[in-house]
């Protein structure tokens, strides 16, 4: 790509030309001498990108974020959906990672009590695998090193007498119970994006960075709207590359050359089965290969079993569960459950790739989950901050670290702040979910119990803003009403039924194709109508060139 | 070839290395020992050459496995002298003498370091009351006086870390060995960043840590040749000798206390929480599931030996002790008002006054040498019993005491301790509780037992028990009260005071 290689060099004349084409930034409180549209431009609308956008916007930087697909559609939505210290990371002596993660559990629970719920895990002892003493040490550390306040501490349980032992084979006699938390992973991304937007950030979805050029101390960034094909150029003082599995690709595409390879892609697949047990605890099973497998109550009627862990070479946009992974998960769970799991119990499965910093670890399960941030760029040159690795639980801490680096590169603004103010809808106490449910029940008595719980645990106090008596609108079935879809379109960047049914909710588990098509039809009619006023809409209006765009579909359904 | 399997508890203490080969019952089937030279050029300095630790270990191991098939050894764990630190460069060459825990060159600087860090913060973070012994104060002394040492030392290792490097090629240690240094934040179980920063150290200069009982390496072919061990023998992370001896004395969970009546005296209890107080220092347990609260008397058996040698009989022969013990038994409780504080080496818990001096108060014409002896045991007993009372006040369970060390041979002293604390006092069978504790860690690591409790139940034994006599309780309460005032009353006679 000779043209793109040229683009690496500074070409001030062309830059001037392009600068005249972009709209002035309405939100800039940067230095008078600086005429960049954005202080900070983030590539990647996953949890880390959105977390950084929120933190930066809250500190007073002007922020843009481009996501090539839907928010959270890459890695963030394919997680095991846990906010956890990572008991197993203790085995690899990653005390500091675990400590930060444990601390974060309660911090995040406090700022997002709707989408984060404490979850008790049952860990059966398995003779021949990790000995009891080692697990006891791990749980002791778990209870002690992370500043636990509200979460319950670990206890030993007798599986022979406890109802928690009933779904398991009789050979499992002893176990432990400990606390972690579950999270709605996509909603965590969405809520960060919403709060970033509320604090002035431009969140630009379905838009890809196609070229990045250094113009002395700022960046000229070419963006392509993936729906319309329109290109536009924006300038920014620092580029933040949080593209997850695509982090190396973003650099390669935008700079037109391959840099050193930093990421190691590790694939993780999950299966969702019909409910395997009746209580509200999750199981953590040790497997003979020293890995662990979770079986977690999921969306009321299901159980989530995962994950696998294997190196992945290939296109991260096209990742699918493989037969041997399904067999592995079925086997791992069947080792523990009294009733063996068969293939026909599976109702859904999903796969994603984690991007870990390549630290040369021998096996996928040992590659470090801790994140690495790298600030690159010479003296007087515009900088790029690249992020590798990380996990859901540490996104907020990662963002704080990123802001520290950003401050070094373009000058400091504000201090750390994200540990207290709640995420949108999370402005209620951690024990207040029941009261919000009561309120919603009273307001909309027609909602079934499952829907009441789902709505409150997705939107928190925001539910009251759109779930209004007599104003729910069309009923799409399974507890999905027009009011919610509108809210997602107008406030959460939803553009397809997939965004609504598989990301901002998991109602897709219950919807037929025809039912889903009705949601798509509604969204299309709604988008053609009088939306506007939304940041992504404004973004689209800035279009300079246009060509036929191709919509990227996810890869959820195998 | 015998099918019996063994583990080795390797105790690298201040004066010697002891390698003890143990079977599944904790029986000592073979052992080797070798002494380690200690240089004490003056009162303030105590130094060793780390290579001497390794020489002693090589000799001790070679002797221990002389009659044992090395292939029958399932693993080894190390118990180490605690506040002793080695400084090495990349080539593993010492750039400075190892500073032994006895070294008090930081006497003139440790208070100001504590002030700089914030005394309360430092005590809370490390669990260690402000005292010259933790290694951080000597590191701070080096930073002020010999700054190049900390720059040249790319590896700053505790004794375990050093020996593991020699045995396996890679230095790995455990929180239970690093904790005595004062470098750990015991609440986080990790190196304390503020403390590292204050000393200008980076974590790269320190060994990574694994919880005691985890495999941290295997004996290299080179080390195998030098030690007589089989190459590939697993090394499990061990810990400091104090905590190891606690484990050897069956302290694996709440309730059991251990009492090391050695040269220095330790009263240790298990606590689930990192309780902070002046009545003890808080130390990470080797079981990984709690802490040891350690009350400390710097002059324990040392004080008794000094008394006997100085005032009673220079020969210190066993007969002298037997005769004294018999005479002292006949003297009634309280020694007719003779009261003793044993602080001839200063006092640690609960006053933390290195300049304190010992005292004999209330002397009368009827007092004999046997009175001096008995009153000394009574004074030390009162110190022990008060620290246990303080632990109880923190809701630390105290059910029974396991006495180890030379002093535990005295039936008179054991009875005093049982009566003063109103707890049964068990006598341990092994003279080498630290090596036994290390062996227990290796046995757990090797998978012999499901946990530390099962391992100690199988490997740590009791020879007999001294039951408390309930009628003694009130008299002891009065004596403890009286003896407790003596430190404050004589404080002004401490070293360097006018």
TrEMBL record, chain A:
It catalyses: a quinone + sn-glycerol 3-phosphate = dihydroxyacetone phosphate + a quinol. Residues 39-395 form the FAD dependent oxidoreductase domain. Gene3D superfamilies: 6.10.250.1890, Alpha-glycerophosphate oxidase, cap domain, D-Amino Acid Oxidase, subunit A, domain 2, FAD/NAD(P)-binding domain. This is Glycerol-3-phosphate dehydrogenase. Its EC number is 1.1.5.3. Keywords: FAD, Flavoprotein, Oxidoreductase. Belongs to the FAD-dependent glycerol-3-phosphate dehydrogenase family. Residues 535-558 have a biased composition (Basic and acidic residues). Residues 530-558 are annotated as: Disordered. SUPFAM superfamilies: FAD/NAD(P)-binding domain. Signal peptide: none annotated. The keyword Flavoprotein applies.
From TrEMBL, chain B:
Residues 257-445 form the Carbohydrate kinase FGGY C-terminal domain. InterPro entries: ATPase_NBD, Carb_kinase_FGGY, Carb_kinase_FGGY_CS, FGGY_C, FGGY_Carb_Kinase, FGGY_N. This is Xylulokinase protein. GO terms for molecular function: kinase activity; phosphotransferase activity, alcohol group as acceptor. CDD domains: ASKHA_NBD_FGGY_YgcE-like. Belongs to the FGGY kinase family. It comes from the Bacteria. Keywords: Kinase, Transferase. Pfam families: FGGY_C, FGGY_N. GO terms for biological process: carbohydrate metabolic process. Residues 6-248 form the Carbohydrate kinase FGGY N-terminal domain.
